[in-house]
Design brief:
The complex is a heterotrimer of chains A (about 280), B (about 300) and C (about 375). Chain A has about 280 residues and is mainly alpha-helical. Chain A contains 13 helices and no strands. In chain A, α8 runs antiparallel to α11. Chain A is globular and about 65 Å long. Classes of the chains: A mainly alpha (about 280), B mainly alpha (about 300), C alpha+beta (about 375). Chain C: It comes from Hyphomicrobium facile.
């Protein structure tokens, strides 16, 4: 079955071989180092590293803020995707192109720019200050940064589905007497839902691991506004390699689970809409 | 996790079609409400930060701005950033093409699992990506003692930065090519072979021209990420000024030293890079979906 | 060039696509590989081309063993089902491809390439699309360009995979005739795969009927149509009335009724299936007649020279379905027999072909 000379197109052995070697050297072997290192720790060591109050507080912040940011993006991302596909308005092409900015803008740049805006002397921070709302240098800052970096995901998963949606469905709904809102709610939204959920999951997964944009705006106060990736860095800087690795392995396991969920969601989207994402 | 950014997608202009159809047209107030809310959100979260970078960069005048860019440490950071991208992008390009060739043109067991593994670096936190190389090459790591004996520095040195950059940009090109080449199938290659073309001729004359826009798209995204990566590089860099600082790390150092104008000046270069990336990306999307001149007959 | 296929088997996973197939394709003929989808005909074509390698067996081209030869060395022209035109090249460049990729020593000069491509474009009557891209052509045009591209390398044999499969009915018919004419001009040995019996019957010099990875019958279209060798051949080609029953002396017993058949070597009681073409089936107006299977008339179509009578079996519905029959009789018989819709009649075969009822292949007619 693997006889190379039995294949019509050449290069199977070479290309697959190179792929596997490169994948192993760059990704798999280094990643396995995390779990091997963690496995050398005793149970008590492990628990005290990953369940210390400061670390647990960081999980709560990281996952809580990531979830909330992804939810915000699900709502507004759907709105933007709808606006960009269904309406014509001046500047639409430019807005469409700029949606991907968070993918292209280095996270450190995003971090300092958001801090400049949301600090109490910044453009938006100054507006909110009199209302007693403080965003930068606290948990709300984390939320803002995570919302920024997750913004394109929902738009870009929902948009193609919306574009491919044949007008016939809504025409049918209208001919059967449905209002626009009913047509959206009962016909369009169920079609979009898997893609929306996929976008949400992608934004969430991205936010959980995010570091660069958050640390500038978060204030990084232990127990209050310290995210888990920062905990890893702090432990590393204190030469606590075991502690850093233990926390990293928790994050890795969660990443893998999210990857599985996302793969499942994408398969669902593909089945529902007949297109691959 | 930039799976979506990486989706190579046709985006034809369908908005006017929806607006012309009474069954899909929304009333004017819905339209302006949606656009209004959407654009406000867009402005607050995307547009203002982008503008802020340039405003802050020039806050102390053009003199300070350009001084910050030509300062030796800044120049060295720029050089290192370009070097890291110049090594990691070609390597990931070769990998991407090779992985896509194996996956799209041949059948073998475990293919879907392999595709998932290739996506893995997207779902790993950049900080963890840096950490794994510390565990392998750091003083406490697997090869640390040996490297130390032979006086080879990987961590807190340029090789570590390059490795971390390769890791975080690993899937970009592969995941552009794999779905496209899978969709294209093997017919054209088989036709070329049956007409007497050699393997290499088939690859250069048939396969590559068919995927060139996706390839370019992947390279553009890969390069943007390679030049902008912060978290992973931050872990392995050691932050030695003039030696192991990339541009994003240089921004951080300046910022933490309260040299805000200088920090934003360097940041503005990165923001420009991002804008160029978006322009190129939009151009490539447009080119790759532009119908060939002349009307469709079929 | 002659093509010999000797004992070819090919398995995909657990699916046996080809089971010990041996064939001889004579020189210069246009041969159809005909069979239902999934019967292995495309696999056989790809094995001959060298695009697929058989598990066992040999391919002999022009008397020389080509089994271990690469597709490039076999000098076969292959026309793909979905054309596989290079979408980034113009029509001209597509046709020139096979010439341009030759090693420098063997490569014709640019002038010769140009002349040859233009000649081929004229041959397929599409000179005016030379500078278009494949996406700008209609399906029929793409098909002809794919053929021109395959011919450019002067193949010893031309292999076409479902050449008209993706075209609409009208274009299909035109291209069929065109392919036949082209073949008569070029006389290059050609094999084409099709699942469409009409196509095979109309175009080819010879038909190879394939089923479940095996050859059922080889013959000219006339032979295949008039003397089907197996039960499968009978039911696959043309429309046919089918009666299942047991042998009882000179009769096939169908339920309580019986049909006389002429010759055969069956044991009494053997389960058989009897076939009769519509024009070889008779209607007996008297429902009490001893010989025949009872049916009732559903519709009578056609008032000209030939009338088509559709009938439905009277007895029990088998597997929940009533059996339908079709009979062609001279239009005048409708009058003389006094046939009308709803009438109960009996059917019998003038030339009943009887086969053992299994997926077997014994023939006796």
């Amino acid at each position: 079955m693997f006889g190379v000379n039995k294949r019509v197109l050449p290069g199977f052995g070479l290309s697959l071989g190179f792929t596997l070697v490169y994948l192993s050297l760059i990704v798999l072997i280094p990643l396995s180092a995390v779990f091997l290192k963690t496995s050398t720790m005793s149970w008590d060591e492990l628990v005290s590293a990953v369940a210390a109050p400061r670390v647990v507080a960081s999980y709560k912040l990281t996952f809580g803020a990531s979830f909330l940011a992804a939810a915000i993006n699900a709502v507004f991302g759907l709105l933007l995707a709808w606006g960009l596909t269904r309406y014509t308005f001046p500047g639409r092409k430019i807005v469409d192109a700029l949606i991907d900015l968070p993918f292209a803008l280095p996270t450190a740049v995003a971090g300092i720019a958001l801090t400049a805006i949301y600090a109490k002397n910044g453009w938006i921070g100054a507006l909110l200050e009199p209302l007693g709302i403080k965003i930068a240098f606290g948990p709300p800052g984390v939320l803002v940064a995570l919302t920024f970096i997750g913004l394109p995901f929902v738009v870009r998963t929902v948009q193609p589905v919306l574009e491919d949606l044949e007008t016939e469905y809504e025409e049918a709904a209208a001919s059967l007497g449905a209002t626009r809102w009913q047509a959206f709610q009962r016909v369009v939204f169920p079609t979009l839902f898997p893609a929306l959920l996929t976008g949400f999951a992608l934004a969430f997964a991205r936010a959980v691991g995010e570091y660069g944009s958050v640390i500038f705006i978060a204030g990084n106060i232990p127990m209050v506004s310290e995210i888990t990736p920062l905990i890893i860095i702090t432990k590393l800087e204190q030469f606590d390699y075991k502690g850093a690795t233990a926390v990293a392995s928790v994050m890795l396991v969660i990443s893998f689970l999210l990857l599985l969920v996302i793969n499942g969601l994408q398969a669902w989207t593909a089945r529902r809409t007949g297109r691959a994402i | 996790m930039a799976t979506v950014a990486a989706t190579f997608d046709a985006r034809s202009d369908t908005a006017s079609k929806f607006e012309a159809n009474p069954a899909t047209r929304d009333s004017a107030w819905v339209k302006y409400l949606v656009i209004g809310v959407g654009l406000t959100y867009f402005t607050i979260f995307l547009l203002l930060p982008l503008i802020a970078v340039f405003v802050e960069a020039f806050r102390k005048g053009a003199g300070t701005y350009f001084a910050a860019l030509v300062e030796p440490d800044a120049l060295s950071a720029i050089r290192l950033t370009i070097l890291a991208a110049a090594i990691s992008v070609p390597l990931n390009l070769v990998f991407g093409v090779s992985a896509a060739w194996a996956i799209a043109k041949f059948q073998f067991p475990g293919k879907n699992f392999l595709i998932t593994l290739i996506d893995l670096p997207f779902s790993v936190s950049p900080v963890v990506a840096g950490l794994i190389y510390v565990l392998v090459f750091g003083l406490q790591g697997w090869f640390g003692p040996w490297l130390n004996e032979h006086d080879i520095k990987v961590i807190f040195a340029v090789p570590g930065i390059v490795l971390a950059t390769i890791f975080v940009t690993f899937p970009f090109i592969a995941r552009e090519l794999i779905p496209l080449m899978q969709a294209q199938g093997r017919d054209e290659e088989e036709a070329a072979i049956s007409l007497g073309a050699s393997g290499l001729q088939t690859f250069w004359r048939v396969t590559i021209p068919n995927v060139k826009w996706a390839l370019l798209y992947g390279v553009i995204l890969c390069n943007a990420r390679a030049m902008g990566e912060f978290g992973a590089v931050s872990v392995v860099s050691g932050h030695i000024r003039g030696e192991t600082n990339t541009m994003p790390l240089h921004v951080e150092i300046l910022y933490n030293e309260y040299q805000f104008a200088a920090a934003f000046a360097v940041a503005s270069l990165l923001a420009l890079l991002a804008l160029v990336t978006l322009v190129l990306k939009t151009y490539v999307e447009w080119r790759s979906h532009r119908p060939v001149a002349g009307e469709q007959v079929s | 060039m002659s093509i010999e296929v000797i004992g070819i088997s090919k398995t995909f996973g657990t699916f046996k696509a080809l089971n010990n197939v041996s064939l001889n394709f004579p020189d210069g003929e246009l041969v159809a590989l005909l069979g239902p989808s999934g019967c292995g005909k495309t696999t056989l074509l790809r094995v001959i081309a060298g695009l697929e390698h058989a598990d066992t067996g040999r391919i002999v081209l022009d008397g020389a063993d080509a089994t271990d030869k690469d597709v490039r060395q076999r000098r076969v022209g292959f026309v793909f089902q979905h054309y596989a035109l290079f979408r980034h090249m113009t029509v001209f460049e597509n046709i020139a491809f096979g010439l341009r990729v030759r090693p420098r020593r063997e490569r014709p000069s640019e002038k010769d390439i140009r002349a040859k491509v233009n000649r081929l474009l004229d041959l397929v009557q599409l000179g005016w699309v030379a500078n278009r891209f494949p996406s700008q052509l209609s399906g029929g045009q793409r098909q002809r360009i794919a053929l021109a591209r395959a011919l450019a390398v002067e193949p010893r044999v031309l292999l076409l995979d479902e050449p008209f499969g993706a075209l609409d009915a009208k274009v299909r018919k035109e291209l069929r005739r065109w392919l036949r004419t082209l073949h008569d001009e070029l006389h290059i040995s050609s094999i084409f795969v099709t699942h469409d019996q009409e196509e095979a019957l109309e175009v080819s010099d010879r038909i190879v009927l394939v089923n479940k990875g095996q050859v059922e019958q080889i013959g000219t279209p006339k032979e295949i149509y008039e003397q089907p060798a197996t039960a499968f051949a009978y039911s696959f080609i043309g429309s046919v009335n089918e009666f299942r029953g047991r042998v009882d002396g000179d009769f096939v017993r169908v339920g309580d009724e019986k049909l006389r058949f002429q010759t055969g070597t069956f044991k009494n009681g053997q389960e058989v299936v009897a076939f009769s073409r519509p024009h070889d089936t008779e209607i007996v107006a008297n429902p009490q007649s001893e010989d025949g299977v009872s049916a009732s008339i559903k519709r009578i179509l056609g008032t000209g020279a030939v009338a088509r009578v559709e009938l439905v079996a009277n007895g029990e519905a088998r597997e929940g379905r009533k059996e339908f029959f079709e009979v062609e009789i001279p239009g005048s018989d409708v009058q003389s027999l006094g046939l009308s819709t709803g009438q109960h009649v009996k059917l019998r075969g003038r030339r009943l072909s009887v086969f053992a009822d299994q997926n077997g292949t014994q023939a006796a007619s």
